[in-house]
């Protein structure tokens, strides 16, 4: 899947948004106008993430998996009533989509009152996804274990998170991720890491070309949005059929056994 020119698309959409709102301002009430702005701003901020999700679905889902149930983590579109862009990617292919977040909002089907203990049974989803959500999660490693729990054996997991970019609290902004971060999460949760890539910046690639010439070409080829603001890191995972308690769980149990609660 060929990546579009990031800045050109962004400028065109931004211009079109303002033109449309100016032309039709009198037709919209204030709340509807706000919802439209939220949807368009989300798209502008995360168009690279949408592209990456489509790319992963084309390469790892289409023609390889029958439509089933997909769960998105951090699915809320806030005040917008429009379906999230990841939802459309899957529902257009016949998948049953469910969105999980911590409070009610557009595109939310399941409300998790506790972000690390979810109100659903184990092994019920065929695919679990998130996009631009992990950086806001104060303990994403615990959420990763819940995701592995609700994913079926042999199921697929796709996460997209920034490796750079300005602070954008929702309500917190705690982390940035590299390729090895996704691989570490796979080990933590007992998953197979099928792919881990980062959209390195042009400056990063120039440094790598000098210091790591053997790796440079491969890293450059997978940097779909080298000039993008977020430098998306993409992790694709599979839950093995023989999934069992991981080192993470053993370490946590050992810690609990050594302290008084």
List the helices and strands and how they pair.
Layout lengths: L5 H19 L5 H31 L8 E5 L11 H7 L4 E6 L8 E2 L13 E7 L8 H11 E11 L17 H11 L2 E7 L3 H10 L1 H9 L11 E6 L8 H11 L4
Parallel strand pairs: 1-2, 1-4, 2-3, 4-5
Antiparallel strand pairs: 5-7, 6-7
Helix pairs in contact: 1-2, 2-3, 6-7
Name the beta content range. 15-25%
Q: State the CATH superfamily name.
A: Vaccinia Virus protein VP39
Strand order, sheet with most strands:
3-2-1-4-5-7-6
CATH architecture: 3-Layer(aba) Sandwich
Biggest sheet overview: 7 strands, mixed
- How far is the first residue's CA from the last residue's CA? 51 Å
Number of domains: 1
Helical content stands at 40-55%
Low-confidence stretches: 6-14
Query: What are the secondary-structure elements, in order, as H or E?
Result: HHEHEEEHEHEHHEH
Number of strands: 7
CATH topology: Rossmann fold
What class do helices, strands and sheet pairing give? alpha/beta
Question: Given this structure, which CATH class is correct?
Answer: Alpha Beta
Approximate shape: globular
| Whole-number mean pLDDT | 85
By DSSP (H or I, 4+ residues per run), the number of helices equals: 8
Radius of gyration over alpha carbons? 19 Å
């Amino acid at each position: 899947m060929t990546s579009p020119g990031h800045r050109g698309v962004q400028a065109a959409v931004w211009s079109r948004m303002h033109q449309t709102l100016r032309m039709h301002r009198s037709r919209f009430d204030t709340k509807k106008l706000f919802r439209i702005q939220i949807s368009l701003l989300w798209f502008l901020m995360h168009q690279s993430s949408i592209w990456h999700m489509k790319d992963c679905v084309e390469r790892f889902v289409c023609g390889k998996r029958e439509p089933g149930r997909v769960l998105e983590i951090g699915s809320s579109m806030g005040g917008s009533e429009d379906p999230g862009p990841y939802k459309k990617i899957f529902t257009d292919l016949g998948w049953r989509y469910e969105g999980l977040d911590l409070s009610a909002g557009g595109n939310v089907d399941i409300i998790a009152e506790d972000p690390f203990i979810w109100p659903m049974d184990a092994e019920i989803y065929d695919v679990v996804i998130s996009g631009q959500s992990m950086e806001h999660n104060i303990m994403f490693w615990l959420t990763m274990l819940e995701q592995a729990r609700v994913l079926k054996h042999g199921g697929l997991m796709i996460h997209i998170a920034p490796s750079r970019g300005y602070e954008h609290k929702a309500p917190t902004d705690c982390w940035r991720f590299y390729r090895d971060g996704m691989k570490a999460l796979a080990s933590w949760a007992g998953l197979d890491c099928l792919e881990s890539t980062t959209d390195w910046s042009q400056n990063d690639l120039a440094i790598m070309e000098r210091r790591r010439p053997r790796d440079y070409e491969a890293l450059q080829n997978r940097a779909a949005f080298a000039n993008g603001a977020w430098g998306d890191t993409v992790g694709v995972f599979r839950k093995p059929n023989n999934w069992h308690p991981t080192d993470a769980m053993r370490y946590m149990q050992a810690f609990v056994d050594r302290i008084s609660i």
